[in-house]
Design a protein that fits this description.
alpha/beta; Rossmann fold; 5 strands; globular; disordered N terminus
C-alpha cells in the first residue's frame, strides 16, 4: 500500500514566492496537511509578515526579482533565531553541508513539490 501523507502537526507557515501559482499550490497542499498558510509575493509583503512574527516556519523561494531567499532567511533568523527556514527552488539545486551548518536554513525543497515532500520536510523540521 502506498504511503499517504497525513497531517501530523499544525504549524503556521509563511510561504514566500513571486509566482502566484506556486503560492496557490503551497496554500492548498500545506493546508491539506493541517497547516495555516500565510503567503507573500513581494519583498515588502514578506518583510511585513516577517516583522510581525506570526509564523512558525518560513518557506521561501531562493530566487525572486526583488530579493533572494537568503536575504529573507537572514532577516528571519535575525529576528527569530529559533524559527526554521526552508529554501525552495526550481533550479534543482542542493545545499552544501556548510550552507546548512551556517544556521540560516534548516531545509531545502525542490519545485515542483508534492504533498509527500512537503510532509517529509515538515517532519524533518519537527525532529530537529
Amino acid at each position: 500500500m502506498p504511503y499517504v501523507a497525513t497531517a501530523t502537526r499544525t504549524a503556521q507557515i509563511l510561504f514566500v514566492d513571486d509566482d502566484p501559482n506556486i503560492l496557490s499550490a503551497a496554500r492548498s497542499l500545506l493546508g491539506a496537511l493541517g497547516n495555516v498558510v500565510i503567503t507573500a509575493q513581494t519583498r515588502a509583503e514578506a518583510e511585513e509578515r516577517l516583522d510581525k512574527g506570526h509564523y512558525d516556519v518560513l518557506m521561501t523561494d531562493l530566487t525572486m526579482p526583488e530579493c533572494s531567499g537568503w536575504d529573507l532567511a537572514k532577516r528571519s533568523k535575525g529576528l527569530y533565531p529559533h524559527k526554521p527556514v526552508v529554501l525552495v527552488s526550481g533550479w534543482g539545486l542542493t545545499l552544501e553541508p556548510e550552507q546548512m551548518r551556517s544556521g540560516l536554513v534548516n531545509g531545502f525543497l525542490s519545485k515542483p513539490f508534492t504533498l509527500d515532500e512537503l510532509q517529509r520536510t515538515l517532519n524533518t523540521l519537527s525532529r530537529s
